[in-house]
Amino acid sequence: MGKYLVLYIQTTSHRYQTAKNIDAILRLPILLAIGHMKIDSVKSYHLQYFLNTQAGKSNSQLQKIRGVITQIFERTELDRINNHTPARKLFLPKGTEKTARSIKEVERLALYKAIETHRGKI
Q1: To 10 degrees, what angle do helices 44-53 and 59-78 make?
Q2: Which of 57, 95, 110, 118 could form a disulfide with 61 if both were Cys (CB 3.0 to 4.6 A apart)?
Q3: pTM of the predicted structure, to 2 decimals
Q4: Are the C-beta atoms of 92 and 55 separated by less than 8 Å?
Q5: DSSP label at 102?
Q6: pLDDT tens across 74-99, in order?
Q7: pLDDT tens across 50-62, in order?
Q8: Is residue 58 classed as helix, strand or coil in its secondary structure?
Q9: d(CA 55, CA 46)
Q10: Are 85 and 74 in contact (CB under 8 A)?
Q11: What are phi and psi of 106, to 5 degrees?
Q12: 5-11: long-range contacts (C-beta < 8 A, 24 or more apart)?
């Protein structure tokens, strides 16, 4: 499985930043969890258990991890390595929802001052 994941990174075309994100997701958590297994021996409960260990991360990160897992196993199905995709119905564990904070008064005053003295006369 580990060799296939590395091959997947090298041969799948993505934009630079997307490839970098996929690489970061694959290198540590996924390779450690299922990299030692044979591709055809990975079952949906292995993948669900792995996703459950990622609980507490942001919802966005969890969706990215699930997306990468799904892409990999859909590719194994297309490459005829697997007859089915064990990643079809993976449920996301409870994640955290991060919200943007409001601008503080000190920051607002600094922004106004910068606007007044900006050389471009914003």
Answers
A1: 160
A2: 57
A3: 0.65
A4: no
A5: P
A6: 888 888 888 888 888 899 999 888 77
A7: 999 999 888 988 9
A8: strand
A9: 15
A10: yes
A11: -60, -40
A12: 5/30, 5/31, 5/35, 5/72, 8/72, 8/75
